[in-house]
Amino acid sequence: MAKMAASMVESGEDAFRKVFKFYKRRNPPPDFSDVVDFSRGLPSDKIVKAKLDPTAVSDVEAARIGLQPVRDWRAFGLQGYPGFIFISNPFLPGSQPFWIRQCLKTYPQKPNVCNLDMHMSPSETQDIWGQSVRGLSTPSGKREPRTLLERLRWVTLGYHYNWDTKTYSSNHHTAFPADLHSLSSKVTAACGFPGFTAEAGILNYYRSDSSLGIHVDESELDHSRPLLSFSFGQSAIFLLGGTHRQDAPTAMFMHSGDMMVMSGQSRLLYHAVPRILPAPEGHTASFLDLCCSVSHLQDSSVLESVPEEDWKVCSRYLQSSRLNVTVRQVLGPGQSFPEIPTAHLKTDAGQTAGYHDEHVEQDSGKRKRSSSCDSAELQTNHL
Ligand code: SIN
Fold first, then answer.
1. What is the pLDDT, as a whole number, of residue 2?
2. What residue spans define the domains of the chain?
3. Cα 383 from Cα 367, distance rounded (Å)
4. Protein residue with its CA nearest to atom 3 in ligand 1
5. What digits encode the pLDDT tens for the residues 258-302?
6. 257 to each of 96, 139, 280, how far by Cα in Å?
7. Which of 53, 55, 118, 372 has the fewest beta carbons under 10 Å from its own?
8. What element of type H or E holds 276?
9. What are the backbone angles phi and psi of residue 185, rounded to the nearest 5°?
C-alpha cells in the first residue's frame, strides 16, 4: 500500500476518483494505514489542534443538547485545509441515542421529504418507523422484503434540496427541527461562527455497501457560512479533496458522534464517502450500549430519554448502517432567493436518487447505476 498511497498522493487526472476507487474496492480490500484517525491522533504530522471558543456555549447549554463542556472537546484541523474542523465525538455518554432516534423515527416524518416519496404516495410513507418496527425485530436472514427504514436513503429538512435542479427554493420549505437547529447553532458558535441559522438539512442513510459520490456543496447562496456534519452508527472513510478533481484527497475515519465543520477555504472542497466500515470496538459501545443511561437530563434538556423498545429498533438498524446529517445555512443575512419565472419552476415529483453512489436501489431512484466511477462522475457538478 505504501506504493499505492504514494502514487495516489500525486495530483493528476482525476486523482480524487482514483483514491475513491481505491477505498471502495472490496477485493482485495484496501490498506487503511494512510487514513487519518482523529480519535487516535494519527498521523500526528497531519493533525493540528483547532482553537474553539469555550465561552460561546455555557456548560449548561451544552448539556441541554447532549454535549460535553466545550473546553473538553477534542477538536482538530488538518494540515493544508484551513477552515476544516473535526470534533471527535463531543457527545455526553448516553446522549447519541436521542439523536439517532430523531434521525430514524422523527425526521423522516412528513412534512419532511425522503427518497421513498419519489415513487410512493404520502399515505404509504406516512409512518416509515411504524411500518418498519416489526420487520426490524425479526432476524434479517429470515425476512423479505426489506423494511421502509432499510430502504430509506435520504431525507431533506427545512429548505428541501431539489436533486434535479440542484437548488433550494422559497416555495419548498418546511420548519427546520428546533432540536437540530439548537445543536447546530451551539456547535458552530463554539467553532467561531455565532449567528449560524440552520435552514436546510440532508440526512444520508448508508448500508454497509453504500457510498456517496464525489461532490461539492455549493447550492447554498451564502458560502461564508459553514457546512456542518454529524455522523452516527457505523464508521466511514471520508475523503476531503481540493477545489479540483485533480487534487488528491485526504482520507479520514469518521466514527459515531464525530462532527465536521467545513468553513472558509474548506467550505467548497470536493468530498465523498467511498466506504462504510464496522465501528471499532470501543466506538460501538459509545453508541450502542449506553442507551437510556442518560442520567444528566435536566428539566430544560432538549433531549428526551429513548424508550427501550425504540432503542432496540435503532440498535438493530445500526448494526449495519451509518447515518449522516449535514446542516446548512442557505441564505445570508437579508438575502433572498432569485425570482424564477413560474414557467421554469420544476416540481419535485420526478426527483431521483440523491447522490448516493450504489448499486441499483429499487427504492432510491429510477436510474440504474452500474459503477461507482460513472456515478462519481455524475456527481462532479452536484450541488
Ligand atoms: C458524509 O456522509 O459524511 C458526507 C455527507 C455529504 O457529503 O453530504
1. 43
2. 2-378
3. 18
4. 324
5. 999 999 999 999 999 999 999 998 776 666 655 655 555 666 788
6. 7, 27, 13
7. 55
8. strand 271-277
9. -70, -30
DSSP E strands, 89-207: 113-114, 154-158, 200-207
Mean pLDDT of 329-347: 79
Structural domain 2-378, CATH architecture? Sandwich (2.60)
356 Rama sector, left if φ>0, alpha if ψ -120 to 50, beta otherwise: beta
Lining residues, ligand 1, CB within 6 Å: 202, 204, 212, 229, 231, 236, 238, 254, 271, 273, 324, 326
Atom of ligand 1 nearest to the CA of 324: 2
**Residue-wise pLDDT tens digits, 105-125:** 999 999 999 999 999 999 999
Is the separation of the CB atoms in 76 and 38 below 8 Å? yes
- Residues 64-115 pLDDT 10s: 999 999 999 999 999 999 999 999 999 999 999 999 999 999 999 999 999 9
Report how far ligand 1's centroid is from the alpha carbon of 325 (Å): 7
Which grid cell is 65? 443538547
Judging by beta carbons within 10 Å of its beta carbon (0-12, 13-18, 19+), is residue 52 exposed, middle or buried? buried
On whether the CB atoms of residues 287 and 100 are closer than 8 A, the answer is yes
Which residue type is seen at 333? P
Residue 85 and residue 77 in contact, taking contact as beta carbons nearer than 8 Å: yes
**Number of residues in the chain:** 383
State which amino acid sits at residue 220: E
pTM for the predicted model, two decimal places: 0.88
From the alpha carbon of 254, which atom of ligand 1 is closest? 3
Atom of ligand 1 nearest to the CA of 236: 3
